[in-house]
Amino acid sequence: MPRYAQLVMGPAGSGKSTYCSTMTQHAEALNRSVQVVNLDPAAEHFDYPVMADIRELIQVDDVMEDDSLRFGPNGGLVFCMEYFANNFDWLEESLGHVEDDYILFDCPGQIELYTHLPVMRQLVEQLQQWEFRVCGVFLVDSQFMVESFKFISGVMAALSAMVSLEIPQVNIMTKMDLLSPKAKKEIEKYLDPDMYSMMEDSSHTIRSTKFKKLTKAICDLIDDYSMVRFLPFDRTDEEGINIVLQHIDFSIQYGEDLEVKEPKEGDEEPSNLNYDEIFQDTSGS
User: Could you say which protein family the record assigns here (predicted)?
Assistant: First the structure.
């Protein structure tokens, strides 16, 4: 049977660890087994149990303190990830091989890992060799996406990861629960954006003709091919969390070969998802 994986990516501070924590709690309520692997060698703490932690292999602090290397924080992290790529056998041993594995990989926040460095692409290829169906989950902080130019920047970052990794990708706006009611209403237009209208709204702030043309070309690309859309993620909204999980499950075809599980003792009703309804809903979205 195939195994399943989410690569949880995004800039530093976008809420990757909070997403993993929320998803594990949500999966537990659904009587689903979801594990988490920490791939951030600079992580300080997280509030969920991990089945594997890259810090057991290598840590950024150790690299920075090495007198022969003399790396700063960013260089140290890149060194750690390259070292990790040369030691995938550690990850294979940590993961073991359990049928129907569903694993969230909590990745570092340095964007260069997903744009022009080969490390994450190598990880994806290795996971696929281990029979994982992999979905990229790219997070952006909704608090910084309420202006057109910041939104376009976030879209381009998500698009870079999508092009580099060549896997199904679900893009998510996190921390929706932290927005004011006014900001929530304002950000709705960015979830399924009309790039042409957005360009017109912001054109008065662009003085350079060259930048106007460049911005228009970027907006045309995004709008014409519908390449990037965002789902809202509010960790206090169980229905919204379930919708996000349904989209990801559909992209990796999770649930096609599963047997129905018995509900946990004390559950009033079986809590497994109806995947026929999920596939029908998401295919029509």
Answer: Belongs to the GPN-loop GTPase family.
